[in-house]
Each structure stands twice: as C-alpha cells, then as structure tokens.
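I'll show an entry:

:::
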Amino acid sequence: MPKLERRHPLAECESCPLNTPETAFVPTKPSREADARLVVVGEAPGFYETTKGEPFSGPSGQLLNKVLNHYGYARDEVMLTNVCLCRPKGNATPTKAAITACRPRLLHELRTSGATDVLALGGTAASALIDDARTITNLRVGPAKSPTAALGPDSPIERVVPTWHPAYCLRNADAFPALVGDVAKLRSTNTDAWTPPRWKYFDDPVEARRVITEIRNRFSEIVVDIEVGIEKDFAFGHPNEYDLLCVGLGYERGSAVVIGTTALSDKGVINSLRELLQNVRIIAHNGKFDLAGLYPTLGNLQLWFDTMLASYCLDERPGNHGLKVLAVEKLGAPQYDLEIQQYVPKKGNYANIPRGLLYKYNAYDVACTWELYELFKPQLETTYTPQEWPYDWLAPKSLRDVHDFMVAASNQLMYLELNGITIDKVHQNELRGIFSGRLEKIEAELDEIVSADVEPAQLKAFNPRSPKQVKEYLESQGIRTDTTNEDTLTGILERSSPTPTVARFIRTLLIHRRQQKLYSTYVDGIRKRIYRGRVYTTYLLHGTTSGRLASRNPNLQNIVRDKDIRRQFSVSKPDNVLIQCDYRNAELRVIATLARDEYLRDLLSNPDPKYKFFNELSDQLYGKDNWTKEDYIRTKAFVYGIGYGREPYSIGLEFNMSVAEANRRYNEFMDLIPATAQWQMDVRKRVLSGADLVTPFGRRRRFWLITEQNKKEVFNEALSYLPQSTASDICVAALTDLRPMLRGLGFIRLTIHDAIVTECHESRADQVGAMMQEVMLAKGKEFTDYVPFPTDISIGKTWGDL
C-alpha cells in the first residue's frame, strides 16, 4: 500500500505505519499556539473523533470536559492532542514506529503551547511524556511528574500529571475517582514537604533488648512491620517460608527503630519482643502478613488496627490499598521503594538487599504506617445516620465497626493461611491424565467439525489454542472478527445467527478453553504451589468490591465444583476427616430478609430437615409433581438469577428456551415474590440517586460513574452486592468465633463464601460438626430472625467427597 504525503509538516509520516488511506487523521485542537492553559494528551483518535475530525469529541471527551470544567478549565483554554494523530486499525495501541514518527510534532506542540502543565491520559501518553518506564498504574500515583528531557531545557512545560484515560473510566467506572483526583493535582498548591522519619537500627543484642524494654515501659500502641524475602503488597506468598530479616517498631509520629538480623538471632531479644508485642495494641499495614511471619518465633499475637483494612473501609475499590501507594498518595512521601528495586528484580529475594538499605526501607514502612493510622483513625468514627441505615432491626454501624470486624477476622484467617490444606499427590498426578483425556476428546470433536468444512490444504492440524487458526476457520464460514476472546465468540452466538455448524464449533471451542483453564489453574497451578505437601492460600479481606472474601495463590474461593479437582484436597492424616458445614441458600435468605418477602420467608422457614425448597417452588410454578428435572434446573436458574439481576434472555439462552418462554416463566416467578421485585427496584433507585449501598455489617459500595453504556452492569452489581457481601460476612463472623473454640479438636482448613471446611480426627467428627452447626446457626440468627439460617453437614476424606 503506497504511503500518503505528510499529514503534519513536523511529523515523519513517511516512516509511519499509520500513514495509509485506511487510517483517519485527526489534528490537534486548537491549532493556534502560545495561549493554552493546559495541554491534554491522549493515545490516538477514537471512532467518534475520526467522524468529527476533532480530538476528544466522543463520549470520553464529554466525560473529560465535565472533569476539566469542575476544576475551572474551559475546553477552549485547553490544547487537545494525541501521541499519534492517526487512528490505528481496530483501535489498537499505536506501535513504537508510529509513536516515534509522530513524536517531533508532539514535542513541538508542547513547546509552543504556552502551557506549563500537561495531563497525560493513559499509559501510551504517560510513556511519551515522562522518562520513566513504569506502567500508568504506578505513574499516576503521587504528585505531578517532571516532563521528558526530550522537550529541551527551554520548554515551558513544568509538570506532567499522568492518569487513566476517560475511555478506560467508561469501561471501568471504579477508576473514575482516580481521574478526578489526578486532575485535582493540577490545581494543587500544597507545598508541604513530607518529613523523613528519625530512625535507628539495632543489631547488637544488648542494645536491642534495651530499646525494646524502653519502648515497652513508655508506649501502649506500637506499629509493627517485618521484612522477609518477599514484599507483602503484591507477592501473595507466606512469610514463614522465608527468613525473618528485621522487625520495625514505631511508637510515635516520625520515629522508628529497626531490630536487625543479627539481634533477631538472640533468644533474649526474641523474648523481649514477645513480651512487648503480647502486651500492647499492635498496629500494622496488612498485619496478617506480619503476625504470620512473627508467629514461628513469637507465638500468638493479636492485631488491633490495620491501616490497609482501614483504607478499604474508607474506599472499597480494590487495588488502592498498598502501603507504598497510600504513602505517596495520602502522605506525600517519596517513592522510597525505588532505592531497593535494583536488588530485588521480579521474584527477587529481599535478603539480597544490603542491610543498611533494607533497614531504612523498613523504618520508612513503619513511619508511614503510623501516619496512616493517625489519618484514618478519626475518619472511621462516623456512624451511619438513620437515613443511611435501612435496617431497623439492627443497631447502626460505624466504619470503625467494619474495620474491627475485619481485624477480628484477620486474626483468625492468619491461622488458616499458616496451616494450609494437604494435597493428595497421587490424585494430583491422576488429574493430569483425566484432563488430558478430556481435552483430547474435545479436540477430536473440533477436528471433525473443521475438517468437514475446510479443505485439508487450507487448514491442517487444527489447533484450538491458536487465535489465528480460529479466525481462519470463522472467516471460511463468512465470519470476520479481530478477536476470538470469549465475549466476542459469545456475541457471535447471541447476535449473528450463525449456522448450526459454526454454533457447534464455537460452543465446543469455549468448552475446550474452560477445560484448559481448569487444568492450568487447578491442576498444574496447584502442583506448582505445593510446599511441604500442602498449598497455602492467602485470604484477602480487601480484595473485591463485592464485599466477599477473596483468596490468591491459589484462589480457592472461586474453585469449581468439579469433584475430580476437589479430590486433590485431602486430609493430612489417614484417621482424619474433613467436615464441610455450609449455609443452605444463604444469599436467598439474605434477600428474603432485606426485601421482607413473606412468600420466600414461608418457603425458607419450613423446619422439616427433609424439606426441599426447590421442589416446593417447582410445584408452585408447574403444578405439584408436574415438572421434569430440566424444569427443576430452570427454577434454580431463575431463583439464583434474581440475586444478580440476571435477565430472562440469558437464562433462556442457557436452557434453550425461546425469549417468549423465558419471559413468561420469569414473570410467573416474579409474580410469586412481589416484595423482592420492589426491593430490587428500590436498590436501583438508590444507586441512581447517588446514595451508597450499605450492608447490615456496615460495609458500603459506591458507584462512581453511571452511564447508559454501563447502567445494566451497575444494576447487576448493585443487586448482587447486598446478598453476596452479607452472606459472606455471616460466614466470616462464624469462622471468627469458631476457630478459637476448635483448639485441641480440629483445624479449619478452608472457608468458601458460605461454607467452612474443618479437619479433625474421625472420632471427633460428631462433636466438631455439631459445634460448627451451632456457631453458624447463631451467627445467622444474629443477623436476623426473619428467616432461619440452617446448615448442611458433609464428611469425607477429600474435599471432593463433601
């Protein structure tokens, strides 16, 4: 394809891969120079921009206008441009060659804009304007950055503020507050400098014991932060797998002491630390990690205040609660972790950091944790007003109540992490064969489909893992697509009316991908994480906006119900058993309570242990005993769908119902539960009004940006938030009470949203099972007596048997 003439006199369009007849060119606006108050730089024009010939003229531009107007920037005062002025095919990220070709033009426009400040939208813009290779996730944290040296010493540009692109915020609404906060940095006049802490390290055992004793005699609240081989903010490993390198202690603002590696080898120092930390209020950031690391040497310690959990209580969006992020963003601290990065490349060990530098890093962690404690503590004290608190049968909570609840849970979840759960290596090896057989069978079916429609010379040895080959097959069937991800393929099924052969191909391919993912995540992934015969998941109380407990490395909260996969999780001794106690229809019982739905209440309150809720509901929908197994499954789909705002269309698609039939059955079901339908309507109205959703445990969820494009997704999340979060917290509350009661009887191995799995000797199974049921029933009753919260018990040698 021949190249066009230069589209901009200062761009090197001759060498640009975007300079073709198919790509649209959108110039900078305004084109005049020397009078802009601000320059906004994006990545490249979008679809709307190419149709109007003006940057930021589509939905993302409208959102940008609102934010800029809020801070006093009129659009005609702002120069709007992009790193590349031409739109890449498929809205792809511009290549390095395209960015380089357009760079002289961009730098010239910045130099002559008259502005001193630049707002860089997205990673491509930030990389082009800042001499820093980090991602936008890291670059946007903290104050404005210095512009690239390529602008030259005479450039008027003084500051670059990197932030999320508005288009990203439209797709990920939880990023919108960050965009608003980042633009505020352009108007910030706060020049208060952060004061580095006074700190000292002690490696001499005598001196270490002296300073620990002095702290014990003078202070009752102590910040604790440890350093081991990994960084707790992003490596979801367990500290007891690594050597303890140092312990930092903070006792007042701006001061810290560090007990060094040599001192920690002295028994007297360890005894002094134990006596100190067992008799003070411990403050930490992600304290579950620190106390787990201290447990092998100091024994049981109790966390009192956690600045990570406090941050989550105040801002429920995940991903914003790491200590370094908060220190820079909230306190104005420097990015002090940059000093150690040369010693700890990806997966590097902190033991390789020179001790003096490591101790300084530890002291800064301690000092920042103390400052965050002082910042967050008063912010947590506000109690919900009667207007904000919709649960008249429960006392209103404060955010401090939420924090304390999570800290109490953290103190108990630490032991689940320390203990882990045993993996049956024999079955683990068998699983590899099981999944190989499954995948081979699916691949044979795909080969059969493809070979019937495509000449062998055109597509040999079809590989379902190859997006290129998938595209080629679909194209041979008249379907062109730029991507082959699950959403795209599902969209083809739903909207394109494909032929039966293509529909069969897509469904089979999706099954293959799911089985492949199961294998890589829960077979191969588990095998790689076995340590001393067990896996040790890390529980995240702050990991989701849904309010549910999450887990990482491996993620056992969302593990599938595949019995073959679950059978690899086993007892640690031949004479032991696993006991699973799970709430029966927990989320539905929460919905019935919140909606005050008398119909659901009546069904869920039947005391007969043999009563089958879904049988009764199927009787009422189809006539007594006048339904099939397929009808029963559909009934469950509608019931569970109401908690997630699931629409009749998607249920009908899953169960091969016409749209008319799906709507009829959905309406019949909703007619039985008008109170729940009204409750759902009230939740939607509350969200649209801008009010917070508050759970009976005091957690809150805010929806920061609601548009026509994301409204459906927001409503679905809002409807699922209250039942999911509440049911999970009832189970977490039960675990918090139960674990200490099981000492000497058994060990809690897992918790999964609405279930607890305990291991004990088979002779104690009845006693432990009864104790689990009693505690879990009591926690359900603490939430409500509107409906009971019964549990089901199952016992077996593996998780798959439960």
Summary: The mean pLDDT is 90. The CA atoms of residues 237 and 538 lie 7 Å apart. The domain at 425-528 is CATH 1.20.1060 (Taq DNA Polymerase; Chain T, domain 4). The radius of gyration is 29 Å.
